[in-house]
Design a protein that fits this description.
The complex is a heterodimer of chains A (355) and B (287). With 355 residues, chain A is α+β, with helices and mostly antiparallel strands. Chain A has eight helices and 20 strands. In chain A, the strands form four sheets. Chain A has a six-stranded mixed beta sheet, sandwiched between helices. In chain A, helix 2 packs across helix 3 and helix 3 packs across helix 4. Chain B is mainly alpha-helical and 287 residues long. Helices cover 75% and strands 0% of the residues of chain B. Chain B is built from 13 helices and no strands. Classes of the chains: A alpha+beta (355), B mainly alpha (287). Chains A and B meet through strand 6, helix 2 and helix 4 of A and helix 9 and helix 10 of B.
Chain lengths: 355, 287
């Protein structure tokens, strides 16, 4: 039996459906991210688990126990908020010890637990400081320690890194994952940042319009999206309208070219409209050996994105992005040059043509 | 031209400084000097010594009690009303109506307020008569008297609590929802949240507002005079008697009484500052 189970979880706000019939099972010790755009229902789902929103329908089970009707202070679930939510009138140590204090634990136990957690978040020297004397990253680490102090059965993180700058975000997300692994605590993490979700999680739940679109490992979500939405939301994708030419041979026509898109397209008839999706990093510039497909076009833009260079090539009506790893010896074309690029059929994803 | 720009910046606040000099510093200096002058203009300590007469000390004590009772009473009541309107889940319109009422009521003092209370809660006031004739309850037989300490305090409360509502509302707005949720998430009850988080955060604002209410009541003259006609021995009324009275005319004593009020307020503000420094160590300084 899963440790956390959401069964038909639904939340409506008047006529608006915030979360619709969400079913999810999370194993003990698992790190699961809820990923989706703003308003997709991920935070509402998290808030229902924490008890801050009452579901319109459905049940929440933790360790086999139905906690749907329990008040937030009776759930033993730790939560880290986007804007830290540290109590400004308390020192770092008092913030971390707050949950134990209201539970009337002995002072010596509180002191020991606070020291242990300050060491865990590497802020041993800052117990006497007030929140406003800390940086954003330090405040969020204190918020994490405060949530962990009560030894919660479940840890919820609501976009905890979104208020931080890029560098801190990267280091703190690694720290969060390391702490989660060290403690083995079941964790549900809400984010709209696909990179964060893919890099942190054991599994990713992609949500859209209050519903779950797909649940899977980061590898599955990225490489085998089930829907047009997941494909376009996770990673950068070239999506071209295509017409099936030979379903048995997996041939489609897109951007005026015949493209070998798959070994076969079962369940699809010749003439059907589909979407051909291509990951930019799987398209190779000026190389034809080992490639099933070749396209030609004119370079329209070149953008340096740090470790990669993104080249956009106009192929008839379609603008196709190609990613090349950046290196000092990279032989880049100029804007306006005619170029050819190739890709194997494994690089193609065929999605429902309805979009 | 930096010097011309600096001059331009200061020009805008000249009216404020003129106002402050004319209506705060000049009168303060005048009453300080006047408190140590006799009728002939010579130096004397007699006015200061006169402050220690029992009836004057009683007047100070009574004024302090009225101010304390109405600052604390009005403060608590105003806080509860503001809490209900802002955090109590009432419709937005209630808050708008309350703010409008508070803006008017906090400035509704003096003779009109005294008359309004006499017309409603006086011996033949509308509410008094209504209670007597409809419900058979004669509040004056039960010990209520509008012209007493508690009657005056009740009247002062009419302008004290709306002032509290106006000043504490932004502070209540500043209580972030996440603090309550975080506290609850960590196992705190509603009482524990208020005890450990919300009240300590609000305390500097509450103390600041209470001292303002205290000062507001401490200096009130027209309401007390209009209501009690001088039967209650309050310091502002005593000052009025000394400055413009025909029988008790003694401006020097009036200045000394006013100087005494300044001292009481200074002590109150010092006590407040001490309390505030103890309750607001967590507030960002110099940010």
């Amino acid at each position: 039996m899963a440790f956390l189970e959401l069964v038909g979880l639904t939340k409506t706000f008047g006529a608006t459906v915030g979360v619709e019939a969400v079913d999810l099972a999370v194993e003990r010790g698992e790190f699961v991210s809820l990923l989706g755009p703003s308003g997709c229902g991920k935070t509402t789902t998290l808030r229902m688990i924490a008890g801050f929103e009452q579901p319109t329908a459905g049940r929440i089970l933790v360790g086999g126990e139905d906690i749907t009707a329990r008040r937030p202070n009776q759930r033993n679930i730790g939560m880290v908020f986007q804007a830290y939510a540290l109590f400004p009138n308390m020192t770092v140590a008092d913030n971390i010890g707050f949950g134990l204090k209201v539970a009337r634990r002995p002072a010596a136990e509180i002191r020991a637990r606070v020291s242990e957690l300050l060491a865990l978040i590497k802020l041993e020297e800052m117990g006497d400081r007030y929140p406003h004397q800390l940086s954003g990253g330090q405040q969020q680490r204190v918020a994490l320690a405060r949530a962990l102090a009560i030894r919660p059965q479940l840890l919820l993180l609501d976009e905890p890194l979104s208020a931080l700058d890029a560098k801190i975000r990267l280091s703190l997300r690694n720290e969060i994952r390391a702490i989660q692994r060290q403690l083995g605590i079941t964790t549900l993490y809400v984010t709209h940042d696909q990179e964060e979700a893919l890099s942190l999680s054991d599994r990713v739940v992609v949500m859209n319009r209050g519903r779950i679109e797909q649940v899977g490992s980061p590898f599955e979500i990225y490489n085998f999206p089930h829907s047009h939405f997941v494909a376009s939301f996770v990673g950068t994708l070239n999506i071209l309208p295509a017409e099936v030419v030979d379903p048995d041979a997996g041939i489609v026509r897109a951007a005026g070219q015949r493209i070998a898109a798959a070994p076969g397209l079962p369940g699809i008839a010749a003439g059907d409209r589909v979407m051909l999706a291509l990951r930019p990093e799987l398209l190779t510039l000026n190389r034809s050996e080992g490639m099933d497909n070749h396209l030609e076009g004119e370079v329209e833009t070149i953008a340096f994105l740090g470790s990669i260079v993104r080249i956009q090539v106009r192929v008839q009506d379609a603008l196709i992005a190609l990613d090349e790893f950046n290196n000092p010896n990279l032989d880049l074309p100029a804007i306006g040059d005619s170029v050819a690029f190739g890709f194997p059929r494994e690089a193609c994803l065929i999605l429902d043509g309805s979009g | 031209m930096p010097s011309r720009r600096v001059l331009g910046d200061w020009l805008g606040v000249v009216p404020f400084f003129l106002f402050a000099v004319a209506f705060i510093f000049w009168p303060a200096m005048a009453l300080f000097v006047g408190a140590f002058r006799d009728a002939q203009g010579g130096f004397t300590l007699a006015n200061i010594v006169a402050l220690f007469q029992p009836f004057i000390l009683d007047a100070y004590w009574l004024t302090i009690r009225v101010s304390l009772v109405t600052a604390v009473g009005g403060g608590i009541f105003g806080f509860l009303v503001a809490y209900a309107a802002i955090l109590g889940g009432l419709p937005r319109g209630v808050r708008t109506a309350l703010t409008t009422f508070s803006g008017v009521a906090s400035n509704f003092a003096g003779i009109p307020l005294a008359f309004a209370f006499i017309a409603t809660l006086g011996r033949v006031g509308m509410v008094t008569v209504l209670l007597r004739d409809v419900f058979g309850l004669n509040i004056y037989d039960r010990g209520f008297n509008l012209y007493s300490f508690w009657g005056l305090s009740l009247t002062y409360m009419y302008f004290q609590f709306p002032l509290m509502v106006l000043i504490i509302s932004p502070a209540l707005d500043g209580l972030r929802r996440e603090w309550r949720e975080a506290a609850s998430n960590l196992g705190a009850s509603n009482v524990q949240y208020w005890r450990y988080v919300a009240l300590p955060i609000l305390l500097p604002s509450l103390l600041g507002t209470m001292i303002l209410l205290f000062g507001n009541a401490f200096g009130a003259y027209a309401t007390a005079y209009g209501l009690t006609g001088g039967s209650l021995n309050l310091i502002p009324i005593l000052i009025g008697q000394q400055v413009r009275g025909d029988v008790l005319h003694n401006p020097g004593l009036g200045y000394a009484l006013a100087l005494g009020m300044v001292v009481v307020m200074a002590v109150s503000i010092a006590a407040f500052s001490w309390l505030q420094s103890r309750t607001s160590r967590w507030i960002r300084r110099g940010a």
